[in-house]
Structures are given as structure tokens and as C-alpha cells.
């Protein structure tokens, strides 16, 4: 983008910097009712995790209270949260999923 300085007749080149979009972590939160098998199924279906990855994340949810399913742009994270919540409700489970900004962003 160029800008002409009217007083001196010179042109200045202005550069605009694009920033990377803010990333959001999608977290699965522990509850006492959602079966571990369903959590693994959700991780495989919506987050494309392997069986082994899904089981490790499910165990983190179970033992630590939450697990990171993935890190995405805001729109993708919100879509995944809505998809998982809808699937959980359809199956009658109270599974909670949230998206939060990545630390250090």
C-alpha cells in the first residue's frame, strides 16, 4: 500500500502485518456419568484421534479432570464443541466440552 505525502511529493510504502489467528484448546471435562468408551468414541470421531491417543486423553480426563482434545482456530473449536455436546445430549450423557484461548496468546 502506498501513501503520497502531499507536502513533499514523496511516496511512502506502508506495510501491514497480518497476525496469526488466536488458537483455542478444546477441553473435555470429567463427570461421573459419561462412560469412558463414549469419550474415546468422541475423540476418534470428532477429533480424528487414534485409539491409543483417544485412550490417553480419556485417562487424562478421568484422572486430572480435563483433557485437551485439540487446538484449533476459534471457529473450528466452537464447531467441535457444538458437535460433541450435541452427540453427548443425543446419547443422554452430561459430557461437557469447552474451548479456551491457548496460554501465551
TrEMBL record:
Involved in the modulation of the specificity of the ClpAP-mediated ATP-dependent protein degradation. Gene3D superfamilies: 3.30.1390.10. One of its GO terms (biological process) is protein catabolic process. The keyword Hydrolase applies. Residues 20-97 form the Adaptor protein ClpS core domain. Keywords: Hydrolase, Protease. This is ATP-dependent Clp protease adapter protein ClpS. Binds to the N-terminal domain of the chaperone ClpA. The gene is clpS. HAMAP family: ClpS. The keyword Protease applies.
Amino acid at each position: 500500500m502506498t501513501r503520497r505525502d502531499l507536502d513533499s511529493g514523496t511516496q511512502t510504502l506502508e506495510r501491514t502485518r497480518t497476525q496469526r489467528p488466536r488458537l483455542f484448546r478444546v477441553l473435555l471435562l470429567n463427570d461421573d456419568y459419561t462412560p469412558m468408551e463414549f469419550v474415546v468414541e468422541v475423540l476418534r470421531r470428532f477429533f480424528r484421534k487414534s485409539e491409543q491417543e483417544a485412550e490417553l486423553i480419556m485417562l487424562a480426563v478421568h484422572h486430572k479432570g480435563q483433557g485437551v482434545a485439540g487446538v484449533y482456530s476459534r471457529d473450528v473449536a466452537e464447531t467441535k464443541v457444538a458437535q460433541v455436546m450435541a452427540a453427548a445430549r443425543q446419547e443422554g450423557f452430561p459430557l461437557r466440552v469447552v474451548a479456551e484461548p491457548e496460554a501465551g496468546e
